[in-house]
Amino acid sequence: MTKVDLINEEFKLAAHRIIARLIKLDPSLLEKARKKISTMEEKHGEVDFILEWKEILSKDSIFDIQKELTSRDEDNYRLRISSPFNTMSFPPFDSEAYRRRIWKAAKRLVEDRLNRLEGDKLCHDHRFGPR
Fold first, then answer.
1. How far lies 36's CA from each of 22, 61, 85, 119, 120, in Å?
2. Distance (Å, whole) CA 27 – CA 125
3. 43-95: per-residue pLDDT in tens?
4. What is the pTM assigned to this prediction?
5. Structural domain for 25, as ranges
6. 40 and 84 Cβ atoms separated by less than 8 Å
7. What is the dihedral of CA 117, 2, 73, 24, to 10 degrees?
8. Which residues contact 8 (CB under 8 A, 6 or more apart)?
């Protein structure tokens, strides 16, 4: 996975964390997401990601939906790529400047992690490497 892929994954996770909070304040966002999924289903048919999103968005509890949106498990990383929220326009995500700020924060986070991993590798190599 490239650095840009990692940044994009962190961006989507951060965005969905914000969306999870917004849903609690404005549950109508869920209905908009359900309509978006229906539109996607008309265009693409009953493909796996659409069926999975329909299942997530049909949960009775907002808390359960929020858990799915913000989960770090591999399936949810994959699903965030095709999230109905990605193409919806609503505040604050209708602002390009806002989206850029989130992406830049995701970039800093990934770069910090990669630098720490590289530092750990150098420390490890120094302590246990060939002499």
1. 17, 20, 8, 44, 44
2. 51
3. 999 999 999 999 999 999 999 999 999 999 999 999 999 999 998 888 888 88
4. 0.84
5. 3-128
6. yes
7. 100
8. 106
